[in-house]
Amino acid sequence: VDCSGSISGRQLRLFEAEARSILEGQRPERVYVLYFDAVVQKVETYEAGQPISLNPVGGGGTEFEPCFEWVEERGITPQTMVFLTDLYGSFPPSAPSYPVLWASTGRRQAPFGEVIPMHAA
């Protein structure tokens, strides 16, 4: 979850609804929610069926690479990595070996993965 300074409260509520939808609709075994700006500020883990409530921390610039480093350092290979973001930030130099989805409230493109537009109601 992008918690950088460019993200509004309205966007964070949209991100929370999307995270809830992933947990309830896809029923993954486990979801790691990384709150990040230029670094990973905080991590919460949710198990299948557990209710989700986002608790964002951050407010600085946006760097996506620390999220990829976080999973790599822990030996986690995500089934899919989903970023809830406005895509205003810097990207790592190369794509990981697993799928990446960028659920974005902005209009920018990512250098890899699939960008899925999200529109605030």
Walk me through what this model shows.
This protein has helices spanning 9-26, 65-73, and strands at residues 30-36, 40-47, 81-85, 100-104, 114-117. The chain is of the alpha/beta class and 121 residues long. The mean pLDDT is 91. 22% of the residues lie in helices and 24% in strands. A hairpin with a 3-residue loop joins strand 1 (30-36) and strand 2 (40-47).
What's this, in brief?
By secondary structure, the protein is of the alpha/beta class. 22% of the residues lie in helices and 24% in strands. The radius of gyration is 13 Å and the shape is globular.
Essential attributes:
2 helices; single chain; three-stranded parallel β-sheet; globular; 24% strand; two-stranded antiparallel ribbon; 121 residues; alpha/beta
